[in-house]
Design a protein that fits this description.
46% of the residues lie in helices and 14% in strands. It is of the alpha/beta class. The protein has a domain at 26-152 and 198-245: Decaprenyl diphosphate synthase-like (Undecaprenyl pyrophosphate synthetase). Strand 3 (111-116), helix 5 (124-135) and strand 4 (143-151) form a beta-alpha-beta unit. Helix 1 (5-20) runs parallel beside helix 9 (236-247), helix 2 packs across helix 3 and helix 4 runs parallel beside helix 5 (124-135). It is globular, with a radius of gyration of 20 Å. The N and C termini lie far apart (54 Å). The model has no long low-confidence stretch (mean pLDDT 92).
């Protein structure tokens, strides 16, 4: 009975947290930096690959939590452009695990997927798999997932400006006319998340308190939540705490 008692307390606390969110504002779009897989693996003298695999399993749990809470959009920061420079053995293992994640998302009839990043930095097999996944139309969409793979926030803004300049050139718009009329929405139309709401809440696990280039444009007025828990150990109760914190904030949007 002594061993079961903490589990009973945990379940009670989780249910109490969930009840406290009833009637409260829930974010429409949650973006998350899934950080800490390698450090989690080192705690158990396990391989880095084991840590990344545990992280992917946690993503599936997390996406189910989001569906249960009626969150509409989730953005997952999976692989940055800097991560591409990791040692080949670790990178190959990580890319293979990401490919497995894509396969599992492909099998979920309630999830649609968009890609965020530069496909040219990915191996051809992974870029092609991601392209096919984004073309799939779910039977009944309950959740939209943005996969940030080979992603860099500064590069996204550069790509958006390039797209805007190309459009202006196609329409014969002189540069000085474009400069005089340019506004925020012009850039937003060419971001990887065009047509989607900006994230209401950005979460980062593992205790790091920085964005690392994640959604620099879109997160201008997002609420930030930094959690000390390493990603594979992230529990539903940790997520509920983040949502409780969010529900208690007054969003000012710069005012």
């Amino acid at each position: 009975m002594v061993l079961e008692f903490p589990h009973v307390l945990y379940g009670y606390y989780e249910r109490r947290l969930a009840r406290s969110l009833r009637g409260q504002k829930i974010p429409e779009h949650v973006a998350i930096v899934v950080d800490g897989n390698r450090r989690w693996a080192r705690q158990f003298n396990a391989s880095t690959g084991h840590g990344h695999q545990a992280g992917v399993e946690k993503i599936h749990e997390f996406l189910q939590w989001c569906q249960d809470l009626n969150i509409k959009v989730v953005t997952l920061y999976m692989l940055s452009t800097e991560n591409i420079k990791r040692a080949k053995d670790e990178l190959d293992e990580l890319l293979g695990i990401i490919a497995t994640l894509m396969d599992r998302l492909d099998s979920d009839p309630k999830i649609s997927v968009s890609a965020m990043g530069s496909p040219e930095v990915l191996p051809e097999y992974l870029a092609e798999r991601l392209r096919k996944l984004t073309q799939r139309v779910p039977e009944t969409e309950k959740l939209h997932v943005n996969l940030a793979v080979g992603y860099g926030g500064r590069q996204e803004i550069v790509d958006a400006v390039r797209g805007l300049l190309r459009e202006a050139a196609e329409h014969g718009t002189p540069p000085e006319v474009l400069a005089d009329s340019l506004d925020v929405e012009d850039i937003s139309r060419f971001l990887y998340t065009t047509g989607q709401p900006d994230p209401d809440l950005v979460i980062r696990t593992s205790g790091e308190q920085r964005l690392s280039g994640f959604m620099l444009w879109q997160s201008a007025y997002s609420e930030m939540y930094f959690c000390d828990v390493l990603w594979p150990a992230f529990r539903r109760v940790d997520f509920l705490r983040a949502l409780r914190d969010y529900s208690g904030r007054h969003r000012r949007y710069g005012s």
